[in-house]
Amino acid sequence: MSHWKLASSDRTFALDVEASDNSPMNGTLTYQGKSYSVTGTWVASGSMPQRNASAFALSGFTGKLTEGMPNFIAATGIMTGPGGSPTKIDIQADSSSSADGTIQRYTGVLYPA
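RE: above sequence
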């Protein structure tokens, strides 16, 4: 299992997850000061013929679903570098608010934090 801890240069977006070999991921994604508990999966480039990129998807929410007004997030990305310690992640994410009905989008690059 590997620990990925990366953030955008301005620190508005950060990823802090445990990633098992070519599969489950879980941890925290922080966006604009909100922490989301996330789970997902990833695959490594070269782990199968014609798999040319290391890609992942994560989703999660803030707080508890049965209390308050949670926000939701979903993110996908392409990782550069070895699975144990990515050197760069290109990421896109959308977050939605159950409090005010807004959706926010983030596209950026994350580097080791």
